[in-house]
Amino acid sequence: MGLKLCLSSTLKFSPISILRPISQSTKNPLRRSLLLVRALSADAAAGTTTIAPDTTPDDFRVAKAPQWKAAIDFKWIRENKEAVAANVKNRNSNANIDLVVELYDKLMNVQKEVEGLRAERNVVANRMKGKLEPSERQKLVEEGKNLKERLVTLEEDLLNLTDELQQEAQCVPNMTHPDVPVGGEDCSSIRKMVGKASEFSFSVKDHVQLGKDLNIFDFDAAAEVSGSKFYYLKNEAVMLEMGLINWAVSEVMKRGFTPLITPEIVRSSVVEKCGFQPRGTNTQVYSIEGSDQCLIGTAEIPVGGIHMDSIIPESSLPLKYVAFSHCFRTEAGAAGAATRGLYRVHQFSKVEMFILCRPEESNSFHEELIEIEEELFSSLGLHFKTIDMATQDLGAPAYRKFDVEAWMPGLGRYGEISSASNCTDYQSRRLGIRYRPESSIPPKKGKGSSTPTRFVHTLNATACAVPRMIICLLENYQQEDGSVVIPEPLRRFMGGLEIITPKIQIRC
Amino acid sequence: MGLQWCLSSTLKLSPLSILRPISQSTKIPLRRSLLVRALSAATVPTTIASAITPDDYRVVKAPQWKAAIDFKWIRENKEAVAANVKNRNFNANIDLVVELYDKLMNVQKEVEGLRAERNVVANRMKGKLEPSERQKLVEEGKNLKERLVTLEGDLLKLTDELQQEAQCVPNMTHPDVPVGGEDCSTIRKMVGKPREFSFFVKDHVQLGKDLNIFDFDAAAEVSGSKFYYLKNEAVMLELGLINWAVSEVMKRGFTPLTTPEIVRSSVVEKCGFQPRGTNTQVYSIEGSDQCLIGTAEIPVGGIHMDSIIPELSLPLKYVAFSHCFRTEAGAAGAATRGLYRVHQFSKVEMFILCRPEESNSFHKELIEIEEDLFSSLGLHFKTLDMATEDLGAPAYRKFDVEAWMPGLGRYGEISSASNCTDYQSRRLGIRYRPESSVPPKKGKGSSASTQFVHTLNATACAVPRMIVCLLENYQQQDGSVVIPEPLRPFMGGLEIITPKSK
After folding, report:
1. Mutate to test the interface with A, among B225, B258, B323 (most CBs of A within 10 A)
2. Helices and strands (H, E) in chain B, number of each type
3. Residue B310 and residue A221: Cβ atoms within 8 Å?
4. Any residues with CB less than 8 A from the CB of B195 and at least 6 apart, and which?
5. pLDDT digit string, tens, across residues B300-339
6. pTM score of the predicted model
7. Which ipTM score applies to this complex?
8. Of chain B residues 342-361, which have a CB less than 8 A from chain A?
9. Which of A470, A351, A220 has the alpha carbon at shortest distance from B260?
């Protein structure tokens, strides 16, 4: 398989370095082109990238201690060591469970020692309060000093161990739903197939050709102004984009989701807590010069951040958001993959669904999310398949992931248009999102607060990734004369437009 | 006045360093509320605080690109150009520009002369010569070559120096523009009047809180200050405003566009902004020469850069939707509450490329469109003809619209319309080829020589400022907010936003 990234505790590098977007996988060039949406939302078959032989030493550099702590359940890892290790193996991750447990045990021991020493120091301090012979006092003072020195050393060890443990433990991917197929992408199973490929009586064009004839894209000017993989949308493509966004937000709102528009610049720590890696080699994340801020690759990040470091009352759950944002991705490492047109771009609009819920409900909300997606795409008349992604294609945060791949006749294959992940408590332990279960037993008078808090589960799912949808609509609804029919549900979000027709143009 | 930026040719400063957004002006604290103008106008000389670091005066390397400035014209109109610089309170040094240009012309002549001499020598060497004569010619040839190399080096340097100085020079000014500071700006038009309230008005922050449609606190944690989430009906307001604005402007014959929001920094500079100065408004991307746009004016201006447009394609009229990103550096202390001054916002921008003789009338057309749009929403506002010291370097003339914001108790800028004449097109290299009435002679090739287009830009809708206006003006006593009729079809028919029991 690929090179192992989390080699041993002697090579200390950012645990999150294994969270490389699948798009960097060189093992399957075709796969790489399909993973626009997934590249970030699932992030990285942990450690499965086939690293090209000219990988720079940077990839293995020692990273400084994480700036924040994930509330990982080390005790649980220890108690379920075999299952956790088996999961790591299934996912082809390079997390080192033995090391995690070893560090945890060490930490616990040092902690005990520290507590012991502190107790002894208290004893000494107390004894010094009483009447003492000078020689006895002197002995105690010595003892106290000695204890203090040992304590300082041990406390430092404690800090180091805590950091090391964090680094190693942050490498550990989420557990996996028992129904998820084990293996590589060829093991992913099809959950559902909707519609069938439409038959064309003429030679189909791809979206780039269609767009050119309809005068609705400009890639060349964008390459001059911004660089490759940028684009201008013109004329009816603008109406398509706006129509898709309005339609998607409206449809998901109808299903009880709270609409949001989010910041697109966020602190890099928030990006990390969601399971992405802003500063690794070949990162998908753009950073802002001179600050600790980044551009988001998906609204999952700022939405996940809304409730960070909070305790949500149970009665507020589930919280369901539908968020619109622009998304920015470097697509580093995606060289060679199909990059023509809108398929893989640096900037795009996306409508994202996000749910925070109680743990026992996340599986059913995962089903709900994929159903919403399937309904949306069906209503537009698309032909697609829903795939239960196999263990090696899950990103570190995902407990289970369903991808939707739609038929793109101009490209002659299926292309990913959305992804729905159940991240259980992976993100919430990092973002610090808890809820307080309503206790059926009223708290005793004077005993203060109620039941202890638990971590929520989080889920995210793409309602609409605009460029991929534009490809689907143009290629599937093209007519022989080059015009494109607008599917009925979108028309009222496009001022009633029913068809995009080629125009006679004056070219500049 | 402020410290002089373009001091002399010995201090090579990036000419663009004077292009500071007005928002950095400390002399007029109220002015700093000018979110939209901050970038679209770019710069007046700032009253510089005494804590300026030496960095501000560092020698900047030669500009990476050349503006096609008409030096000859500057020279021939030196007094007018200098007077204009003074009126605008800029620090461009016209004498120096002319001096460098003259030097350049002289060196150019010398170089041509030397080249001619070299050709003569080379030709003479082709013939039969006495060895001593040949030797003399060889020496002469060598001598000429050395002098040429030196002079050509001078030529390059002079060209760079001239560019740096000349790029400092702001656009000329429309004769009707009032001369002076902001108190000299004149009111072109007043529309409507402030609504009278029978109850105590709230500002948009309070209204938003009661309606549960904003979240500033979470955004401060996730991103930093001056960021925000829009929630619930505010999302519908934003989407509705964008759809409405694009739709309305399309009806008037503008081509809709969505644009990249990451662009090369050279494009930002060519539009008249300064990505890398101290207190720049521009976010840069780490590890690249790219920046985030502060306005769609930039990527739209870039579409036709380095091109020649056929005359019959003009005018080109675009309505562009984009997100805009601004650092708002140097805006400390200004009214920063709520949506008034933010780092990220949505904006619908109009942009026109036209023939020079038409730009004044298109400027009027743009401001009329803005006035129609804002009137139709029932806003009370005034249109200002901005005085010379409040024009940015690119603007020949600038109209700002300030709308009444009752919650804030004052007028706030909601849009800006600038005629940049050929300032941007000379930098972006956007020309057009006039249809020649005389058919070109056979074999003579091409037609009439090209000219620079004029460019104009105007805000159709800057969403956060519009949200402030709508919330504050349409608030009801019970805290609900009525949606003006033209927006309702773009908001699924929503007529009113009501407080919810929480």
Report:
1. B258
2. 13, 17
3. no
4. B380, B406, B473
5. 999 999 999 999 999 999 999 999 999 998 766 556 679 9
6. 0.85
7. 0.84
8. 343-344
9. A220
